Amino acid sequence: MKTKYLKIGAIAIVIAFLATGTYLFAGESYDEKIEKTGTVLEDGAISGLVVPAYTAESLNVTSISDLNGHASEFDNEIIGIDPGAGITELTKKVVDEYGLSLSFVTSSEAAMLAALDTAYRSEDHIVVTLWDPHWVTGVYDLVYLDDPKLVYGEAESIESWARPGLIAEDPTLAKIMEQYSFEIDEFSGLLAYIESNKDGMSVGEAARNWIDENPDAKERWLDGVEYQGGRGNIEIGLVSWACAIGSSNVLKILLENVGYSVTLTTIDAGVMYAGLAYGNIDLITTAWVPLTHAQYMEKYA
Q: What is the DSSP string of 30-51?
């Protein structure tokens, strides 16, 4: 397998990570488009603004447009995740479309979840950006606010995509990726399993145990593929979101089971797509389409 690697000091390609979340490649350019390899979850992914159920009931906040009337109850803030995330760009549009007086604060998934947990334990009011599938919706009683303008769109799919040329290079990998698809209850169960075991084992160990406990899924994904040593090196890019972490770790184990050597690389969403387009990342399993990652699909796909 021909996987492009950046060997600092050995080749004359310099990568600069810009604040915009893009790659700069000195002396090399690529015109090919990234290629879809499969659908990880079909029409089961949603995103939006979320409040605790007690907030929705006590303040009668059920729609995004209701937020302005209670801005002070939320400390005049909407808590988001990392700046490069698709849901972050959509939330900026939500603030404009609905004329919200609350400030949109970006942070990280971990910081957002910590803020949600602190508020929930004290029954304080909070509004955050969130998406499903996600383990947190099985832990807290939360309500997605109605979005009548459909800025966040409707239910989306999560797809897997490959660097240019990878599908043609490796038909076996292409077959696995075409078969690598979850049902929503499987996906939710995986994320819940990883979260419930985070204090006792690593994400990789939890993913391996989940696969062992779900042999039918493993058989479905690896149908027609046998172990063969030395299949090659695969680098999977992912963002630090629960759904991406879960699906990427499971895929890593599956590919290793049939002879691949796999590396997981956690990076910003914009950098992830750029790396995929420029051939420095082989696969991703976390493309939210058609809306959340539209900006990256328009640019690279």
A: --PPPEEEEEEEEEEEEEEEEE
Q: Is 76 left (phi over 0), alpha (psi -120 to 50) or beta?
A: left
Phi, psi of 281 (to 5 degrees): -125, 140
Locate 243 and state its tokens. Answer: 């759904």
pLDDT at 168: 96
Query: Using an 8 Å Cβ cutoff, are 26 and 257 in contact?
Result: no
- For the entire predicted model, the pTM comes to 0.77
> Are 107 and 135 contacting, i.e. CB atoms less than 8 angstroms apart?
no
Distance of CA 209 to the CA centre of its chain: 22
Residue 52 β-bridge partners: 142
Residue 30: HSE in the Cβ half-sphere, 13 Å Cα cutoff: 21
Preceding omega of 171 cis (within 30 degrees of 0): no
pLDDT of 11: 25
CA torsion sign, 193 to 198 to 199 to 200?
Answer: positive
Rounded (10°) angle between helices 242-257 and 184-196: 100
User: pLDDT (tens digit, 9 = 90+) per residue, 87-122?
Assistant: 999 999 999 999 999 999 999 999 999 999 999 999
Q: Are 264 and 236 in contact (CB under 8 A)?
A: yes
Nearest to 221 by CA among 257, 262, 168: 257
| pLDDT tens sequence across 168-194 | 999 999 999 999 999 988 998 999 999
